[in-house]
Amino acid sequence: xxxxxxxxxxxxxxxxxxxxxxxxxxxxxxxxxxxxxxxxxxxxxxxxxxxxxxxxxxxxxxxxxxxxxxxxxxxxxxxxxxxxxxxxxxxxxxxxxxxxxxxxxxxxxxxxxxxxxxxxxxxxxxxxxxxxxxxxxxxxxxxxxxxxxxxxxxxxxxxxxxxxxxxxxxxxxxxxxxxxxxxxxxxxxxxxxxxxxxxxxxxxxxxxxxxxxxxxxxxxxxxxxxxxxxxxxxxxxxxxxxxxxxxxxxxxxxxxxxxxxxxxxxxxxxxxxxxxxxxxxxxxxxxxxxxxxxxxxxxxxxxxxxxxxxxxxxxxxxxxxxxxxxxxxxxxxxxxxxxxxxxxxxxxxxxxxxxxxxxxxxxxxxxxxxxxxxxxxxxxxxxxxxxxxxxxxxxxxxxxxxxxxxxxxxxxxxxxxxxxxxxxxxxxxxxxxxxxxxxxxxxxxxxxxxx
Length: 451
What we know:
The chain has about 450 residues and is mainly alpha-helical. The chain is about 75% helix and about 0% strand. It has helices spanning about 1-20, 25-30, 30-55, 60-80, 85-95, 100-120, 125-150, 160-185, 190-210, 240-250, 255-285, 290-315, 320-340, 345-375, 375-405, 410-435.
């Protein structure tokens, strides 16, 4: 009993310190603290869901699992790759309900977790369909939350600071949710899914209680509207969804486009690692180490790298973000090549650590570039569009991991080659943009910051 009371006092003290941190620097008054707390709950639910499914979906035979996960990824990618150009205009028509949109992504996952609990208990065919719905809803949450954060910044608070604080809360949420789900899962995976259900219900309430300014879009424009239409006199609102997507790319400053390419590369690597290593360790575990232990170590290394990237990114917030992005991408390319050539437990752990670190550093740098070089009236839309692109990159990376044969040197060699292409593409964007004059119309950057 004394130990329980001591643990309780320690937990309450930790919660008070965490709350003081999230509410500091005006975040409590602006509503940013509520967004940070919501993200903590969201990732706690995601961690509980992941722990619950780890022993169910990946317990079926490898060939069958790869086929089902491939279908799972294809269906996941479809909403982003095919419908993404249409989602923006649709949300714009209902932009005064963003709190409800965020809440819906959490409520949907709560419902699906309850369905999953029954599917796991009965070995139902609805398992993959419900898991797919959870993943799509999780990606949709990321996009909708991205559009809310810029509206909640306190005076003098940068987007980099806000996202660093949110990322730290997310790491803590994953740890708490994973530990709780691991303890409850000893009773049965259906009970950890019911725990995830309860967590998502709490998140739904927190989402609806976000400040009303989340729904405000006063003075906002889509960056596609800053690009002149090819047909003179044609109203911008009649531009088709695919034409608007191309216009968004054309309107992005060189610095933002190059940062986005780099961020998509690191996110693609995370998607690849998540699925390729999971299946590789089942079929070809490293000598002397079980596949489950190796997978847990790689995931832990990636999580540690992500947390470290959050801390380092916050420390380097005043450095040139281009330098941070370039250094992180170069380190990722070098580590991926080393893993392909010298495949071992240590290079695999190093790749997990560097991938998590680089993903977070590049994301922090991209946020800083967007805040610096995109004017305020289009910044929120650009931020949400960038988040959609990153989610698509994760799915593409996962699809590559599923499609490749389970040969370590081949798999890591392919992803290393793709990262080299990403690096060359980021450099090529800068070279190509500098070789042509800056546009005289639709300028979205502050003076002196174009390119």
